[in-house]
Design brief:
Strand order of the largest sheet: 1-4-10-11-12
Largest sheet: 5 strands, mixed
Order of helices and strands: EHEHHHEHEEEHEEEEHEE
Radius of gyration: 23 Å
Shape: elongated
Strand content: 15-25%
Length: about 270
């Protein structure tokens, strides 16, 4: 399911390095690859610990939560044994201590890595830092991807990344639907240090570490980095002429009047 809101951009951009064989596949194979967060450069990315409001961690709520969790994990257990388990667990574990949640963190992180595939997108083609960090210091390229073409991706949601100084808090008692929304929020909440990316994300909760292929018309435009070598440019131009006749091709250059990039269209 793609969240096709009017507020989201019509075109998204992927910054790539033509010297990387995997990065090339966006043009050679029309590939969209849903990576897991343990492959990303931000250690907090989609790896946030479950955080509760301290005021909710009362004895009564902890006991109810233990009953709820036990019922989910061992549904065949009788009620008497379930209550006995919850009482013993509540007496032996300090659920209010930070030490306990620190020990639990690797399990929650690994769960997110196992079940969530992510494809990151930018909303602009002229982001200087994105060119520097993700397109090999302007030696790479960017691809404009049509939002409408993303509808063919199954089990996928398109969501805007939120930038915050705090981790999202999980209510102790939530429905399955609310739990899914909370997990999606974890995968789309990043530190404000990354706000320059202005990122959107495709989230796939069924097929992490999986490539998907789009039709040739998914490309709206291709932008060649201002420092890309001529051999790489010619390779991309050949692909553009053969596979993507509907797309525009641009050469990126420096704007000599301000700290900005210019995009000069290349004609066939």
């Amino acid at each position: 399911m793609i969240e096709l809101t009017n507020k989201s951009p019509r075109i998204f951009f992927k910054y790539r390095d033509w010297n990387n064989e995997f990065h090339k596949r966006i043009l050679t194979d029309n590939e969209v690859y849903f990576a897991t967060a343990n492959q990303f450069n931000d250690p907090f990315d989609a790896s946030l610990p479950f955080t509760y409001d301290a005021s909710e961690l009362t004895d009564e709520n902890i006991f109810k939560k233990l009953i709820e969790t036990r019922l989910h994990d061992v549904p065949q257990e009788n009620e008497e044994d379930r209550i006995k388990y919850a009482k013993e667990r509540a007496q032996t574990v300090d659920f209010r201590s930070q030490e306990y949640w620190d020990k639990m963190y690797p399990f929650t992180r690994d769960h997110l890595h196992k079940h969530f595939g992510i494809y990151s997108l930018a909303r602009r083609r002229d982001n200087l830092l994105m060119w520097a960090h993700y397109a090999n210091s302007h030696r790479g390229f960017s691809v404009g991807i049509k939002k409408s073409s993303l509808k063919s991706l199954r089990f996928t949601q398109l969501l805007k990344v939120e930038y915050s100084n705090q981790f999202p808090q999980r209510p102790m008692f939530i429905s399955d639907d609310e739990q899914t929304k909370y997990l999606l929020k974890i995968t789309t909440t990043k530190s404000k240090h990354w706000s320059y990316e202005r990122e959107y994300r495709l989230i796939n909760m069924i097929f992490p570490n999986t490539p998907f292929r789009l039709k040739d018309d998914f490309v709206s435009e291709i932008c060649l980095g201002l420092a890309m070598n001529e051999e790489s440019k010619e390779e991309i131009k050949t692909l553009w002429k053969e596979k993507f006749p509907q797309a525009k091709l641009f050469q990126t250059s420096i704007d000599t009047k301000k700290f900005s990039l210019k995009f000069i269209e290349i004609k066939k």
